[in-house]
Please model this.
Amino acid sequence: LNKQNLVDRQCDYTCSNNAFKAQQAAFTIDGAWALKTYEEALGNNLGIQQLPKLNGEYMQPYYSTFVLAFPNDGLNGANKESLIKFAKLVQAEKFQTLVWQKLQDIPVNTNVLNNLKAQQGTELSTLIDAIQFTKPMPSTASMIIVWEVLNKGFIRYGSGALTAEQAGLFMQGLAERSIANEGDE
Model:
């Protein structure tokens, strides 16, 4: 794509995100987390759509969720009651409504989700429709390594230090070594 002048190899996520918000890019591929900032920047000029089909098949991006986790078996500790109250609070209708309003993230509270489906236009329904073609992102320690390796590989490719093929091999080797070393710790 770079050789065809369709993308600028020097333009990272922040650069392409800003270009899209400034209407200097025709499209972007991003997650629900970015929707609110795009709405603020583009207003009625924003349209969203799920990823297109490729060779007749829907693309299957990963999705992830926010989780509420308590370390050291906290739900059985001295703060049990406070943690349960907090967990209930973040799942309550008022909080979940704010999740949609502030983050444009799909609420887990069924009542809020159903109310939003009834009120909202195409954005929420597009997000919900798109979910059926996604895969859950693995939630493992290895995924942390994958993200770091991707970042390192893209930086080297973007700087011109490695070709695309070299960056791919670099990332694969680094991931394999890092994951193997993770078991040694």
Notes: The mean pLDDT is 85.
